[in-house]
């Protein structure tokens, strides 16, 4: 911000404070006894289609509206303003023929950003714009700081994220994204409940980090004098509920991962996780497809959407194995090479993929997939047959124990969901936890800890089940055509 802008804003602030003090002196500052009876969008929906003559005949009178002044055209004896309420914008006509002359004079000094209340009758102007003819007006809240300039808008993207309230008050498109987000989450919840799932809540502070491979946030509980971890996933607690007898559970949860910031990642994010006992792998893929299609329809999308420049067909989801996708993009590899550690290391080096000596063939194969394949999966694709080595909580496949009954869904080159048949063999789970502990000892900050209580829970017997995690933030990005996760999170984490 230039010195002139700083000086200009200081001058505006000083002038508006002077006006506020006058309101305080008259006991008219920050009033709370005006109550709107209608909203702008409601009036447009009910009466916007009527002609000027039909609206006069209908006599829509004695309406009360409240909102922020976002546009003001002051003339001699009459003026037009546009106010914005929680639903949208509507024009107000104010004339000194309809209100007190002194009040009209005071109104002329009101500023953009002020929140006002008005009552009056509905009509249409000569240009057929739906308008409220004000018979009374009142200044409810004095805005001390100016709104962004109408034509320039809120151009500074950093300010949009750091002061989201300014973004929302001045940018209807931004506000609409978050309305759609709410509708998407509502659709997801409705789909789950209609299918017989029970919504539950599980702890956000864990004694052991688990449920996903990620670096946790660490905190300290003073009264217990113990270290706790913000959850990286609710998975292990939700599966304890399957042991307890619930057969279908879900949670729309906040999770935390101590990772970098990017257009795809925020350290605090929202996930849907659900678990269904006795479900089939293929049936769960179909259910996840329906969940996403229903959420898209809930915000008015058709079968084809655009995301980040790509045209995506949500009516068609395909299934591919991880191996066939890697082989198609890495022709130097043969099928027999996919389990050969030395061949995979040589290929990784040839494509400039750095790796650790502790990585086995499964981990290398996954890294090669992420580097060479993932970004090219534009159309909705379920990738199946992941190596067990990178699936510490997944059940082994009956025919090939080296792979897990696991899928990940990719759309637009980005992961949207992760699901698998749950590992319910306590001895196998204990061994995989030990491998995670060893990986952590070898320097892997994202490896899980050994959850003794969870193993004990499995020893009581968990029914066969399938579980899925869906990234709500990325789902909203996809369905609203946003390229940055910061545009779908109201208050994203930012650098200082």
Written overview of the protein:
The chain has about 500 residues and is of the alpha+beta class. The protein has 15 helices and 18 strands. The strands form 4 sheets. It has an 8-stranded mixed β-sheet, sandwiched between helices. A hairpin with a 5-residue loop joins β4 (about 115-125) and β5 (about 130-140). The protein is elongated. It is found in: Cytoplasm. Its cofactor is Mg(2+). It catalyses: tRNA(Lys) + L-lysine + ATP = L-lysyl-tRNA(Lys) + AMP + diphosphate.
Describe the structure concisely for a colleague.
The chain is an alpha+beta fold and about 500 residues long.
Termini separation: 17 Å
Major beta sheet summary: 8 strands, mixed
Structural class call reads alpha+beta
The name of the CATH topology of the largest domain is BirA Bifunctional Protein, domain 2
Q: What is the averaged pLDDT score?
A: 94
CATH class of the largest domain: Alpha Beta
Gyration radius, to the nearest Å? 29 Å
CATH 4th-level superfamily of the largest domain: Bira Bifunctional Protein, Domain 2
* Low-confidence sequence ranges: none
How many separate domains make up the residues?
2
How much of the residues is beta strand, in percent? 15-25%
Give me the side-by-side strand order of the main sheet.
Answer: 6-10-11-18-17-16-15-14
Number of strands: 18
Query: Percent of residues in helical segments?
Result: 25-40%
